[in-house]
Amino acid sequence: MSSYENILISAPKPGVGLITLNRPRALNALSTALFQELNDALRQLDEDKSTGAIVLTGSEKAFAAGADIKEMKDLTFSEAFNTNFITSWSSTIPGVRTPLIAAVNGHALGGGCELALMADIIYCSASATFGQPEIKLGIIPGAGGSQRLTRAVGKSKAMELILTGKNFSGTEAGQWGVASRVFDSSEACVQGAVDTAAKIARMSSVAVKAAKEVVNKSQDLPLRDGLEYERKVFHSLFGSKDQKIGMTAFAEKKRPEWSNE
């Protein structure tokens, strides 16, 4: 794994890759340089056969406190349009096939909230702060916030949050379905994410990738098309070695030893 300036990489448990955003003086403010490193690390972990799940986190104070305003405040329309500014911030994660868990503590605002929403699973501490405050800067969310937040909480609540720039707490994130689990402390949040990632990593990687794919399709397809897609992927898994291993082990009351094939 490469060495980076803005992120840290570790392996806290077998099969788990942990990426920690590491710009403490800037409260992990997001920049193109940070995303270049993050995207590179994600691609490497995704291609690593020994990595079964990835956890993305920040610090206790900030998951990511937003975009680095210094990088964008002087942009003109033509510069933003011609360089397709911010596209690289959100283009890599949707293509990552390895499950990604965001462990959110502290501030997750603007681009930080959008980054968390790109993950497959969000865990957070009760004291975490989410929000899309771009309206206060005279702009709108540009890395998926208006789309993913609306899918998570519904049109009316998303409209209120985005039009007012109002923040919401980690507790509310759990109540509204933005986060799947809420923890009392930042340490418990990160540990909970690592534990879940380790559990996922112990499953058949073939089945895990297929499961992630069909759940994500539910966000894009009408119900009838989604059901048909799910059924085709379900049928295809009967051609995998791990389907035979898993069902044979179940019948024999043994623990499966996955081949990941």
List the helices and strands and how they pair.
Layout: E1 7-10, E2 16-21, H1 32-47, E3 53-57, E4 62-64, H2 69-72, H3 77-82, H4 87-91, E5 100-104, E6 107-109, H5 111-118, E7 121-125, E8 129-131, H6 145-153, H7 155-164, E9 168-169, H8 170-176, E10 181-183, H9 186-201, H10 205-217, H11 223-236, H12 241-251
Parallel strand pairs: 2-3, 3-5, 4-6, 5-7, 6-8, 7-10
Antiparallel strand pairs: 1-2, 8-9
Helix pairs in contact: 6-7
Describe this structure in words.
There is one protein chain. This protein has 12 helices and 10 strands. The strands form 2 sheets. The chain has a 6-stranded mixed β-sheet with strand order 1-2-3-5-7-10, sandwiched between helices. Strands 4-6-8-9 form a 4-stranded mixed β-sheet. The mean pLDDT is 95. By secondary structure, the protein is α/β, with parallel strands linked by helices. Helix 6 (145-153) packs across helix 7 (155-164). Helix content is 46%, strand content 15%. A hairpin with a 5-residue loop joins strand 1 and strand 2 (16-21). It has helices spanning 32-47, 69-72, 77-82, 87-91, 111-118, 145-153, 155-164, 170-176, 186-201, 205-217, 223-236, 241-251; strands at 7-10, 16-21, 53-57, 62-64, 100-104, 107-109, 121-125, 129-131, 168-169, 181-183. It is globular and about 65 Å long. The longest helix is centred in the N-terminal third of the chain and has 16 residues, at 32-47.
